[in-house]
Amino acid sequence: MRRPSVSHGRRRSFCSSQVELAGFLASTGVKVVSVDMPPFMQIHAVDCARNAYDSLEKFTSKTLALTLKKEFDGVYGPAWHCIVGTSFGSFVTHSVGGFMYFAMDHKLYILLFKTAVQRAD
C-alpha cells in the first residue's frame, strides 16, 4: 500500500472508508487504542510520529513528544499535549476531535490531545 503524503495545514481527502484508514495504520506499524480525531489528523499524527521516530539518531520519548506537540501546535493551533512512553497512566480532558492514543510497533505508546486555551484577564 502506498503511504500518502500529508498536506500540512490543509485538509486532504485520503480515506473514503474506515478500511482504507485501518490499512494505512497497519502499514505503518500502528495500532489505535482510542481516538476522537478526524482521519486526516490521524494520518498526520502517525506520519509525524513515524518520521520523527525513524529519523532520530538517539531516540528519547521527550524528543518525540516535543516534535509532535510543536507540529500540531503549528498546524492546528494551541494547545496540544503529547505523552510518549512504554508505560504510563493518564486521565485527561480533551477538546472534541482532538484526541488520539496509539501504539507504534507494539511497544511505544503515544497520547496526543488538545485542550482549549483561554486568555487570562
TrEMBL record:
<dbReference type="GO" id="GO:0005874">
    <property type="term" value="C:microtubule"/>
</dbReference>
<dbReference type="GO" id="GO:0007017">
    <property type="term" value="P:microtubule-based process"/>
</dbReference>
<dbReference type="GO" id="GO:0005868">
    <property type="term" value="C:cytoplasmic dynein complex"/>
</dbReference>
<keyword id="KW-0505">Motor protein</keyword>
<keyword id="KW-0493">Microtubule</keyword>
<protein>
    <recommendedName>
        <fullName>Dynein light chain</fullName>
    </recommendedName>
</protein>
<comment type="similarity">
    <text>Belongs to the dynein light chain family.</text>
</comment>
<keyword id="KW-0243">Dynein</keyword>
<keyword id="KW-0206">Cytoskeleton</keyword>
<dbReference type="InterPro" id="IPR037177">
    <property type="entry name" value="DLC_sf"/>
</dbReference>
<dbReference type="Pfam" id="PF01221">
    <property type="entry name" value="Dynein_light"/>
</dbReference>
<dbReference type="GO" id="GO:0045505">
    <property type="term" value="F:dynein intermediate chain binding"/>
</dbReference>
<keyword id="KW-0963">Cytoplasm</keyword>
<dbReference type="InterPro" id="IPR001372">
    <property type="entry name" value="Dynein_light_chain_typ-1/2"/>
</dbReference>
